[in-house]
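not sure who needs this but someone in the group chat was asking about Proteinase-activated receptor 2 from Nibea albiflora so here u go. i didnt clean anything up, its just raw.
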Amino acid sequence: MGILGFIVPTTVCIISYVLMLKALRNSMSDPTIAKRRQKAIVLIVTVLIMFLVCFTPSNIMLMVHYILLLGEAENNLYGFYITTLCLASLNSCFDPFVYYFISEDFRNHVKNTFLCRSERTVERMRVSFSALKYSKKSNTYTSDTGNTQSSSC
């Protein structure tokens, strides 16, 4: 059970992640793509470490439990096993935060929430600023509606 339920899938995950990391690092020559690839590398490493930290202890304890049962030895490790099982369950809670914190949209949403700005207000601000065009020749700002304002710059 330990081999088929944990060791084989873990080995497949580690090999897959290492191959993805190698592929991403080999294609980092273009500086415009390198920044996005760097984010992907950080995400892959973070997910792999979280997977190993959260699931390895509980699976090791499960294997120890069954080995002790087979050997008919006294098993006083049940409390520790339950603790490691809670750690494994925490992985499901941590995953959404990792994926969302890597997203710039989520970070902006959190920032706007802390600044008490609604999405509607932020969208209006975005539209207002994008509609404003700067004319270098006349040193004025012109909006899409045709209104012109002088610049003090």
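also The beta strands are 133-135, 140-142, 148-150. if thats useful
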